[in-house]
Specification:
Largest sheet: none
Oligomer: single chain
Strand content: under 5%
């Protein structure tokens, strides 16, 4: 893949991610007030805690996703269908094990739900039912390998569109089910239906790229070199995965345990703006990582280093601009501040 094509793919991926982030934000602005009104702060906050628990259950993959990414990108870079087929089959097999471990861990978490989600005794059965419904999506875990294959093919735009559609479907179905009085069980059903539709799309996409692989993956010969590379990347990938999970959602779990589900609802709403800004910075790396992997696999190490420095510099500049802009807007001690808040004087302006 030449430099111009890699750059086009990266630009398309980033633009798609930014547009989809805007769509997600607009949908959230419309649906969140309605959900809070129809479900109540405690029920909606409990649902957000369940989402965070499922996210943390993903840690049982032990960094598998990050380990598979460079392996699949290298396979795509070789432009050999058999090598790609072996890599995807290996990923599907490994994710089936992840699905089994996730179900096992989920049963343990379910026992601890009364502590993790402190709700009245009358609401506990519906909470446990909702968690079981959402936990059943663990059987869809193997489609994560297909999504990684799509990203490795520098089609992050497709991944972003699918995830956005999944989020919109979840929001719309959840809104309707909340309106008709299904409560937290309805939110779990909306999540399950959206995840199932997303998994169906990935199976269809794989059928087009690698016909019948989804049904005969266990008979596809393994590539020992690919297996060794996945094992080689295991430890750093595990550390990266754990750090990412702890930094993203552990705060909501702590808020739920100490302050209750109702406080999680307020926390989720007020932190949304920061999450959107952070996602835009992360989109730079998400849009370009497959191109970097292809460069490295092709042995173009000098070009790889040069591009890596350029992208790192861009991310640092954008993050600096964002935080400076936020201080100007939000800090009450800034004479140039556009919005006055009750935040204490930080002394930074």
């Amino acid at each position: 893949m030449n430099t111009a094509r890699r750059s086009r793919h990266a630009a398309r991926n980033y633009v798609t991610s930014s547009l989809c982030a805007g769509v997600t934000l607009l949908v959230g602005l419309f649906t969140t007030p309605c959900l809070l009104e129809w479900l109540g702060d405690e029920t909606w906050g409990s649902y957000r805690i369940l989402l965070n628990l499922l996210f943390h259950l993903g840690a049982v993959e032990l960094g598998l996703a990050a380990s598979l990414m460079p392996v699949m990108a290298g396979a795509v870079g070789q432009a050999d269908q058999d090598v790609e087929r072996a890599a995807v089959a290996m990923g599907i097999r490994r994710y089936w094990r992840v699905a089994l471990w996730t179900l096992f861990a989920g049963v343990i978490v379910m026992v601890a739900l009364p502590v993790l989600v402190p709700v009245p005794a009358a609401a506990l059965p519906s909470l446990q039912l909702a968690f079981l419904i959402m936990l059943s999506t663990a059987i869809l875990a193997p489609t994560a390998a297909i999504r990684i294959y799509c990203e490795a093919s520098q089609r992050t735009d497709i991944v972003t569109l699918v995830l956005t559609c999944q989020g919109v479907v979840t929001a719309v179905l959840g809104l309707w089910l909340a309106r008709v009085g299904w409560g937290i069980t309805g939110q779990a059903m909306a999540y399950l239906m959206a995840m199932t539709a997303s998994a169906g799309f990935w199976l269809l996409w794989l059928e087009r790229k690698q016909p019948k692989l989804a049904f005969v993956f266990w008979r596809t010969a393994e590539d020992e070199t690919q297996n060794r590379r996945v094992s080689q990347y295991h430890r750093p990938s595990l550390v990266l995965s754990l750090c990412g999970r702890l930094s993203l959602t552990v705060d909501a779990l702590l808020v739920g345990i100490f302050l209750g589900p109702a406080a999680v609802a307020m926390f989720a709403v007020t932190s949304r703006l920061f999450e959107v800004a952070q996602s835009q910075l992360q989109n730079v790396a998400s849009a370009s990582w497959a191109g970097f992997a292809n460069l490295y696999a092709a042995g173009q190490h000098q070009e790889f280093n040069r591009r890596l420095i350029e992208v790192t510099r861009l991310v640092l500049i954008l993050s600096g601009v964002f935080w400076c802009r936020w201080l100007v807007i939000a800090n009450p001690s800034c004479s140039c501040g556009l919005v006055r808040t009750s935040l204490p004087d930080s002394g930074l302006c």
